Amino acid sequence: MFSSKHSSCTTILVGKKASYDGSTIIARNEDAGDAINPKKFVVVEPEDQPREYHAKLTKFTVKLPDNPLRYTSVPDAVADKGVWGEAGINSHNVAMSATETITTNARVMGADPFEKDGLGEEDLLTITLPYINSAREGVQRVGKLLEKYGTYESNGILFSDVNEIWYMETAGGHHWVAQRIPDDAYVIAPNQTGIQEIDFDDPDSFMYSKDLRKFAQEHHLNPTSHFNFRKIFGSDTQLDHRYNTPRAWYGQRYFDPESVKDKTPMSNDLPFICHANRKITLEDIKFVLGSHYQDTPYDPFAPGVDYKTVPYRPIGINRNQELSILQLRPGLPSTYSAIQWLAFGSNPFNTLTPFYTNVVNTPDCYRDTTGTFDSHNAYWANRMISLIAANHYQEVMQDVEDYQLKEMAYAHERVNKIDSMMADKEASGSHVVRALGQANARTADHIMTATEALLTTLVIKTSQDVPGSFNREHY
To answer: Coiled-coil stretches, from where to where (predicted)?
Structure first.
């Protein structure tokens, strides 16, 4: 089995009746195994999509359909280990994020071993997103690929369109299940198998590999009287209790404190499908996906705390590489209803930039990331900010929070202005695409300028009192 280098993500899904504006929203932190894993934001045109896909880390190869759609992607800037496209929206306004690495158990792996040359996170967005017309089709395509080629890891995969959200989880090498998220619900998935009771007689809410029930029965995998996917195919280990479960606990605590008042960060019975005590906003999602257990005893940035002694793994950590919040908005023309809200670097210290996805290119400061540090590049500037801020948290967080508030307000203002501009235009086809591309560039330029200004402020402020400083007035 190959171990994914992107192995510690956190996912939030928000149904259209649970969100603040009726959008379907899917979001996921991409967390790498190391602090530095440069990312870029690109558009893949049909002519640039491969017709035969070859993985870099395994021998997996697949022939692809000849009619791909255009789509956005957030691949690795250095492609020597594969694409790792992670998150995007295609030209039919179907969104996908892949993958949320999840857990399984020894009985499952013994009954359906992983395929060492199967598909995995490296491959999934590239071989799926250009070929689907709905969230449901995304599940169906990946399901067929899993059953034919298998996988070398356990993963959760997110799909959405303007009407539905589906969350798919793999089980062993070839089995899987997917659940439609109720419109009035939200989900937090923290690297654990999450889906619970499966209703095999409800095809509107569940899809699964054709032999799933028989497979579990033949291999004596089900310890319960029901078909609880988490109990059968997931894990319940000490690592889960400290690394995974606390993230779900904190997110559920944020969205409705009453729902977890009798729970602890190590509770192993937190629900998969949840309901908030209010409508969920983009700011809520960003806060949770950048959170580090604020206002609890487990915050590694609290004054006087040694971060090495904090018992639970936070959500917002230095290994966050990018966050994509994929928003599909109702009641607007499909030409400009889809937005990919993107943040690079560590989420406690960055901000979101809204990119309309019906475009043929992305701004160069987000697109042209390389493996070499460049303060004029969005990934690298945010990476440096997070390095400084983490080491001088109490000193600089007021500057960071002021930046985040101001630039998020600007982002909302831009979306309102661009929507109004597009509604006033009688443009179609390439005219819309060009106008949205120009609008994205202006948005990115503004936020990049603000980000560089914050970086300058933090460098100046934190350079005054470091080892090796000398002020003659002190002597």
So the answer is: none
Predicted confidence at residue 424, as pLDDT, reads: 83
Query: CA 120, CA 444: separation in Å to the nearest integer?
Result: 32
Nearest Cα to Cα of residue 339 among 348, 330, 349, 329: 329
Q: State residue 1's pLDDT score.
A: 41
Take residue 425 and report the two structure tokens written for it. 């235009």
Give me the residues of the chain with pLDDT under 50, please. 1-4
The answer to whether 10 and 315 have CB atoms below 8 angstroms apart is yes
Co-location of 424 and 319 in the same domain: no
Peptide bond connecting 99 to the previous residue in cis, omega within 30 degrees of 0: yes
Domain count along the chain? 2
pTM given for the model? 0.97
Task: Name the nearest CA neighbour of 342 among 44, 14, 146, 86.
Answer: 86
356 part of a folded domain: no
Report residue 304 as tokens.
């006087």
Cα–Cα distance for residue pair 283/80, rounded to 1 Å: 35
Domain harbouring 102, CATH code: 3.60.60
- Residue 25's contacts (CB-CB under 8 Å, 6 or more residues apart) are 12, 13, 14, 19, 160, 280, 282, 285, 325, 326, 327, 328
**Is 274 annotated in the active site?**
no
Q: For the packed helices 245-255 and 282-289, what is the interaxial angle rounded to 10 degrees?
A: 150
- Evaluated on CA atoms 279, 285, 287, 291, the torsion sign reads positive
Whole-number Å distance between alpha carbons of 314 and 240: 13
Q: At what angle do helices 393-424 and 430-462 cross, to 10 degrees?
A: 160
Helix (H, G, I), strand (E, B) or coil at 322: strand
pLDDT digits (tens, 9 = 90+) for 16-26: 999 999 999 99
Residue at 250: amino acid letter:
Y
Which of 302, 328, 354 delimits the end of a domain? 328
Comparing CA positions, the residue from 21, 25, 99, 104 lying closest to residue 288 is 25
Q: Which of 4, 6, 9, 166 is catalytic?
A: 9
Question: What gap in Å lies between CA 207 and CA 205, rounded to an integer?
Answer: 7
- Taking Cα atoms as reference points, which of 52, 8, 55 lies closest to residue 31? 8
Report which of 185, 189, 207, 167 is spatially closest to residue 280, judged by C-alpha positions: 185
Q: For 11-57, what is each residue's pLDDT tens digit?
A: 999 999 999 999 999 999 999 999 999 999 999 999 999 999 999 99
Print the domain residue range for 411. Answer: 393-462
